[in-house]
Structures are given as structure tokens and as C-alpha cells.
Amino acid sequence: MRFGVPRSLSPSPVRGKQRRRSTYGLYSESESDSDNYDLVDSESADSDSDSGSENSYLRVSELSTTRSAKRPSRRSVTDAELRHIEDTVATIRLRTRHHDPYEEWEQQTRKDAFRTARKTLTESESQWHDEQDRARAQEREQQDVLHAQQIAEVQNHLNALRLQRQSEEQKLREAWKARDRMLWERIEGVIKLEEDKFKRKLEEEKRIKAEEEQRRRLEEERRKMEAERKKKEEEEARRKKEQQEREEAEAKQRQEEEERTRLERLKTEKDQRQIMGLSTADEDWQNTRAMLHKLKNECIKVVKANKALKSEWNSLRRQITPKIGQLTNDSEAIRRITTQLVQICAPPNAPPRDPRLYATLLSSLAKAILMQAETEVTAEPRTADPLSQVTFGLIESLVGFADIFYAKLVQRIGGWAIPIVVPPQDFDGRRWGSDDERRKVMGYRKSANGEDIESTSEYCSRVAGIMRVYFSVLKVKPLTKPLGPMFQSLRYWVWFARIVGGQYRSLLESPVAPFLIHTALDVMGTDARDMWGLQWIKMLGLVYQGVTEGFGTNGANEPLYIGGQTPEGKSSRMRVQLEIERIMSTTRLKPATLFS
Prior knowledge:
Blueprint lengths: L28 H8 L5 H29 L8 H18 L4 H176 L4 H25 L1 H19 L5 H15 L9 H25 L4 H14 L3 H13 L21 H7 L14 H20 L14 H11 L4 H5 L2 H21 L1 H15 L3 E2 L5 E2 L6 H18 L6 H5 L1
Antiparallel strand pairs: 1-2
Helix pairs in contact: 2-3, 5-8, 5-10, 6-7, 6-8, 7-9, 8-10, 8-12, 9-12, 12-15, 13-15, 13-16, 15-16, 15-17, 16-17
């Protein structure tokens, strides 16, 4: 709080030094507060305050008197002004003597906080000193334990060194004893060695003398026996030469007779095959490859090069594929789809198509059927029945479709449809350009991922699916006229005779063989038994022996089984065995009794 007093007019133009306002020579509250931090007693503070107030009052009175003396006012102070001044001085005196309870509480609180801090500091220092004493005592204990442990280790090490020294001394003593013993043994051994050497020398001289006598006697006997042996060998050589000449003449005569008989037999068989419409496996392979070559170069390439024929071919081909995919196991649907496919390839009320377009269209139709067999029949074997019936109807109705379908069949699965091992050259004598070309001719295709060659299991499943359709076509009995030679029931017997006959041993060792044998037996095994009777049972006996006992032995005299030792071959071999036992279950003789 500030107080002001009206000031008298000064007659002098020169003013004195300016003083701070509202102080009147008194200590301000801020100065008083800063002094309180010196932590002095409250009584001395009160006394200082009282003396300060009194001094202030005196200074004010003296100031007033001095100014009155030095500067006489132009006018006299009125009573009102004097009363105002006195009231102001009384107010200031009252203000300076006032005691504030908050200030006293604040001062007391500061003193209590100081004492508390001093006490806390003392306790903290005491506790720290105690912890230091405990730490030093614990460290001394640890050092004592460590010293005791080190002393024990040193003592143990000294004991170990003492024991080691004693052991080494003992070993040295034993080594010296052994050395002495070996030295004496060596001396005795040298003496004995010299004695034995002298004895052996005497014995060697006796032996040499005896051997010399023996060798002289044997040499005389050997010369006599050598003379007799040479005489006998000359006689034996002369006799063998005469006998060999006689045997060679007989063998040559017999070989000529056999060759003449074989040629006559082959000529007779060829005439019989021509009469019956049969052929050998090599002839079937040559004819099929020639058909594929002719179909590719003389028909398909020409159609693709001709824009009009290619457009018509693409249009008709797009009609074939959906109809094959719509096929179901329904007699009405089979007849309808067969009729539609025949009308697409050979319209009844239209002029005949271009022969090259017609052959190319039949090739597309055969490929569509085989692709359907690869996908559908492989997944579900029962779909082979409607597909085989449609194929049978197309072979009956379309001229030339039988040969093209069989050629495409061989193209998709290699020589398994004949069956035959793919030769190292084509029908025209050209050798295969690479292993990839030969594998393609054998029927291998890209795998499902489209990068590598398909695996053995994929190849077996795909070939079995296609052959199931082929065997199903052989099973169908024609009502009007017989089909071509490749689709008659006799081909079923020919297929088994070729694969079991042993001419192509590698076919039986392949894991594909038991797959196809099981497929053939599953489709037509029972019908073949009813058709050929005991002859078919003998054929089954050979197959049963090949899957149970083996059809031969290898170089290590181990049995060779149909399908080899691959996992696919083993599983298929078991299925063949079960299928033969199922077929023979309806006969009077059991498989084990009949095949033994």
C-alpha cells in the first residue's frame, strides 16, 4: 500500500534529488520478505520492525521541519492540511506496527522445514555410513573366504605335483627294469638267432642236395611224359579236326535245312496271315507310322495351307468337340451323338467332301475321342463304355476311320497298342533325331504343370485310360458286318500273345505292362474265358506266373516279375493277381491248382 502527501511549492527553480515514491524512508514489503530468509528469530525481527517504524516517523518529522526551515512556503499551512498530514503520519505508524499472522506462520513453517531437512540429512548420512561399514565387513569376509580357497587350491596343486613326481619316479624305475630285461632278452635272442641260422644253413644244404636229386629225376620223367603228350595231342588234334570238319558240314547242312524250313514256314504263316487278315507287330508298327506320315504331310498340311479348307475344317472341328463332351451313358444319347458326328463328317444329302479335308476331319474326331479318354476315363473308368460305343459306331459308319483312329491311338500311347518296343528308327529307316523325339513317339507328353515330362504314374494312368476304350471297342459285337482287322475280338488274343510271348522282354519289365494287363482283364477277361476256354486259361496261367513267381531271372539269378520292382509295378501286379483269381473263381479249377 502506498501513501502520498501533498507537496509544497518550491521557490527555487532548482529541484533536489528525486526520491522513491511511497516509501517515506521505510523498508518495503519485498525487502522485509527477503530479510526473513536469513532465518533469524522472530523477536529480533519484531524489534527491528518497531525501531524502523519509529525511525521512519522521525525522518518524516525532520523532513517536514527541514523543508519548512529551508523553504519557507509562500503561504501558511492551513489547519485542514495539518490535520491531513497528522492523520497520514498516524496511519503510517499504525501500518508499521501491525503484526500479520500469515507471515508469522510462514516464518515458523520455514524453520520447521529446515529442522526436518537437517534431521533427514542426519539420518541419511548415518544410514549411508552404516551401509558402508556393512559393505566393508562383507568384502573382508569374501576376501577371507577367497584367501582360504586359494590356499586350499595351492595345497592341492602341491599335493598333485608331489604325487606326479612320485608317479614319474615309479615309471622311470619300471622303464629301467624293462630296459634291462629287454637288453638281456636281445642278447639271448642274438645268441639263439646265430644258433638257428647255423642249423638252417645245414638244413638248407641238405634240402638243396635233395631237391637237386629230385629235380634231375623229375626232369627225366617230364621229358618222357612230354614226348608221350605231344604224340597224343597230335593224334587228338588230327581226330578233332576231322570231327570238326564233319560237324561243320553237318551243321551247315542242318542250318540250310532249318533256314529252308523257316522260310517255308514264314511264307506259309504270311500266306495264312494274309488270308486271315493278320500281321506281325513290326508290320503293324510300319503301317501305322506310314499312315501317320501320310496323314500329316498329304492331308493336314494341305488343309492348313488352303484358307478355304482350313476355315471349313475349323468350323466342323468346333462342332465335334462339344458333342464328345456331352456324351453320357444313355443309349438314346449315344445313338444321337453318333449320328450327329457321322453327319458332320459325311453329310448324307451333300456331295462328298474333299478327301484331304475328310481325312483331316477324321483325325480331329479321333483326337477328340482319345483326349476325352485321357481325361474322363482316367478319372472314372465307367465312362469308357459310352465312349467305346460311339467309337464303334463311327468305325462302322465312316469309311477309313478305323485306320486313322488306330494310327492316332498309336501316336498318343506309342507301341503299347500293338504292343511293340519302339525301334531305334522310323518306318522309312530314318533314326530319331533326339531322345525327346523318341520319347514323344513312345507316347510321353508334358506333365500337368506343362514343364517337365509326365511321371511314370501319370503316363501309366493316361495309357490305361486310352487302352480301356480300345479294349471296350474290341468287346462290342458287330451286328451287320465285321470291323477292320485292328478292331476285331481276335486282336485281344493277339495283344496278350505278343506281350506275354517273351519277344519283347522289356515290355514286361515296364510298370506300364501290369497296368494295361489289369485294364484288359477288367474289360474283357471273363468274355475271353468264355470265348477261348482252356487256351485262354493257359494264357492267364502265364500271366499269373509272371506276377507271382516271375517270368525269368536276371544276371544275379533273381526272379523277374511283370512290372519290375517300381512302386507302380508292384501295386499293379497285385491288382492283376486279384483280377485273375476273380476270373477263375467261377471255374471248377482254382488258380493255384491250375497254374501249378
